[in-house]
Design brief:
Elements: H1 15-34, E1 43-47, H2 52-63, E2 67-72, H3 77-82, E3 86-89, H4 95-102
Parallel strand pairs: 1-2, 2-3
Helix pairs in contact: 1-2
């Protein structure tokens, strides 16, 4: 394994938390790199953006230069927006039209 593919992990983090962290980000990375050849400026829609994998998708998507629209409950939009996504609430009456406005290119 090349050193550039490794990272130092904190000693005080329990192994079950480390496993969850790695699995969430590996899942998100796999989704972002295998589904389509995404390029900076492309848009992605993350349903459940406040969950573990959703948060990872928002963060990694922004690192990759993607326009990230994250959908979650209204109570969790502060968290979604803090990840760099354009947060939208599931229950807003005009969600579909808002999504079209935020991602006009699809």
């Amino acid at each position: 394994i090349e050193a550039s593919n490794l990272m130092l992990l904190p000693n005080d983090l329990p192994s079950h938390q480390l496993a969850c962290l790695v699995l969430n980000y590996m899942t998100a990375f796999g989704l972002l790199t295998s589904a389509k050849q995404l390029k900076p400026g492309d848009s992605i829609l993350v349903m459940g953006a406040s969950g573990a994998v959703g948060t990872a998708l928002c963060q990694l998507g922004r690192v990759l230069g993607l326009r990230v629209v994250g959908v979650a409950t209204a109570a969790k939009l502060v968290h979604v927006n803090a990840q760099g996504a354009f947060g939208q609430a599931y229950d807003q009456p005009d969600l579909r039209s808002r999504l079209y406005c935020l991602t006009p290119q699809g």
